[in-house]
Specification:
The protein is 0% helix and 40% strand. The protein is elongated. Strand 9 and strand 10 form a beta hairpin. With 215 residues, the chain is mainly beta. The strands form 4 sheets. Strands 2, 3, 5, 8, 11, 14 and 15 form a 7-stranded antiparallel sheet that branches. The chain has a 5-stranded antiparallel sheet with strand order 4-7-12-9-10, with no helix packed on it. It has a single domain, classed as Immunoglobulin-like (Sandwich), CATH 2.60.40. The two termini are 19 Å apart. The protein has no helices and 16 strands.
């Protein structure tokens, strides 16, 4: 079985404030010392080649610069037409501060949420861990997956706005507009994208014969 080298691109995207004053409410940093209102460039070194069995972790920091306590939420959007995430070929986990690792779980909207209280003036380290299944290999087929992390900070006292239940148990779906009627400030603070440049070898599924990949 041929094991393909994998090139992974992870980028920190610019801030996307949902209101003019929100841009000052949340700071981001690579090292937890120097703060800015946005981060650009790669989270993981885009020159690195990934092979099955690789596990890598990267991190950035967020800080509540508002006067009130907020709720930090991490959401994950994925485009996974080849089922790499669903079939566990690629495992993505996040960790906020000292909390435990939370694995990406695809649901109806391909979202996975984690909530963390963030007091005024406090900061948190956000880690992202990507694991490429050692058993993922295929003679000829390369599949692709794309996903994006979005981190938001919302007024902890605001509560949910009208219609925010979404009917799927995923509070805040549809960022950055989520909760706008009730939340005083909501901000998409950073995005981490994998997709452009991510090609993974998918493990053959049961019932696969020859060199084709079962669909």
């Amino acid at each position: 079985m041929i094991r393909s080298l994998v090139v992974v691109t992870m980028c920190l995207l610019s801030l996307m404030p949902s209101s003019a004053h929100a841009a000052d409410e949340l700071g981001v940093s690579r090292d937890g010392r120097t703060w800015a209102d946005h981060l650009d460039g790669s989270l993981f070194d885009s020159r690195l080649l990934w092979v099955p069995g690789d596990v890598r972790t990267a991190a950035f920091y967020v800080r509540n610069q508002a006067d009130d306590s907020g709720t930090l939420t991490i959401s994950v959007e994925s485009r996974d037409p080849d089922r790499l995430l669903r079939d566990d070929d690629l495992r993505i986990e996040t960790r906020v501060g000292d909390q435990g690792w939370v694995a990406l779980e695809q649901r109806d909207g391909a979202y996975r949420w984690e909530h963390s209280a963030l007091p005024a003036g406090d900061s948190r380290r956000v880690q992202v861990r990507a694991s490429f299944d050692p058993a993922s290999a295929n003679d000829s087929q390369r599949d692709h997956v794309g996903f994006r992390f979005m981190v938001t900070l919302a007024d902890a006292d605001a509560g949910a706005g009208p219609g925010d239940d979404g009917g799927d148990g995923l509070p805040g779906a549809g960022l950055p507009d989520t909760g706008a009627p009730a939340v005083g400030w909501t901000l998409v603070v950073a995005g981490i994208a994998i997709g452009t440049g991510l090609a993974l070898m998918k493990r053959g599924r049961r019932g696969e014969t020859g060199h084709g990949t079962a669909r």
